[in-house]
Write a structure and sequence with these properties.
Layout lengths: L7 E5 L2 E8 L3 E6 L4 E3 L13 E3 L5 H4 L2 H10 L6 E5 L3 H15 L6 E5 L4 E3 L4 E7 L7 E12 L8 H9 L5 E12 L5 H4 L3 H4 L2 E5 L9 H6 L5 H6 L8 E5 L7 H11 L3 H4 L1 E3 L2
Parallel strand pairs: 4-5, 5-6, 6-7, 11-12, 12-13, 13-14
Antiparallel strand pairs: 1-2, 2-3, 3-4, 8-9, 9-10, 10-11
Bound molecules: zinc ion (2 copies).
């Protein structure tokens, strides 16, 4: 396998999380069991088989590899991928793909689908993606992947199988949908992106940006640029119910050892071992 971009991996309860993110460099995440990925800042060769992608926003470190990915799948004779993008960006991305088609003389077959906060995308019977607003310097989105199943309604719990069958035959809806947030993804955003979507705090796995960690990089200034500071996570520490929190997208102005040191000072037990720094 060609090794063209770094990828880190973590497996939690049968769910694999793969990815890498560094501010102003590149961001890409993939959940192979869910057959989807977030952001196309670069495209590791091993990610090519995943055909559904959600792009959080159009900054280059999150979208630059979109044409590369589309062209690569065509060359490898794979099905055209489906890429969900913030609605205002589609027109421009289509133009870019057309220009690359002229330069490269290769087609760019793909389905680009506009999305906005509040949208719900049905991936399958078991999985749905919801879209939330985030706060950044350009239109930007957050995503939650939900596991959903049907469950007998509470008022029918004590009925016999026969009674339930009769109700069902008479046209009564006996089940209701039960949803559980599996994975939440906050691309670039000020902390409002977390606060606006309670499922971000409840998802089994949260992937979040954490661009700034140093006390000298002041929060108020950082929020203007639409990013999260370590102090924002500290303020919200009681709210995180996630089993795994992956923090990434660190600024390139920090060396790795400084990030680790500052985060460990703020969270000596790394939120009970739930907080993972992906450097
Ligand atoms: Zn970024
Ligand atoms: Zn950005």
């Amino acid at each position: 396998m060609v090794d063209n971009s770094p990828v880190r991996t973590l497996v939690h309860k049968g769910l694999t999380i793969e990815g890498y993110s560094r501010a102003a460099v590149q961001t890409y995440w993939r959940l192979p069991e869910l057959k989807l990925g977030f952001d196309l800042g670069a495209q590791p060769w091993s990610f090519m088989g995943t055909n559904t992608w959600f792009v959080s926003h159009a900054h280059l470190d999150h979208i630059a590899a979109l044409p590369v990915y589309v062209a690569r799948r065509r060359m490898m004779k794979m099905e055209p991928p489906t890429i969900y993008l913030p609605e205002g960006t589609i027109e421009h991305v289509e133009k870019i793909l057309k220009l690359f088609t002229r330069l490269d003389r290769g087609r760019m077959p793909c389905q680009l689908i506009p999305i906005k906060p509040g949208d719900e995308i049905e991936l399958s019977r078991e999985h749905v993606v919801t879209v939330s607003a985030t706060k950044h310097t350009v239109p930007s989105l957050g995503f939650v992947v939900w596991d959903r199943r049907r469950k007998l309604k509470a008022e029918f719990q004590n009925l016999s199988g026969e009674q339930i069958r009769d109700l069902r035959l008479s046209g009564t809806e006996v089940t209701e949908e039960l949803r559980m947030p599996l994975v939440a993804y906050l691309g670039d955003s000020a902390p409002e992106g977390l606060d606006a979507c309670p499922a971000m705090y409840q998802a089994r796995v949260l992937i979040t940006e954490l661009t700034f960690v140093a006390p000298s990089h002041r929060k108020d200034k950082i929020h203007k640029f639409g990013h999260i500071h370590l102090d924002d996570l500290v303020e919200r520490r009681e709210r995180f119910q996630n089993e795994v929190i992956i923090a990434s997208h660190f600024s390139t102005r920090y060396v790795d050892s400084r990030i680790t040191r500052l985060v460990q000072r703020a969270f000596p037990d790394l939120l009970g071992g739930r907080l993972h720094l992906w450097l």
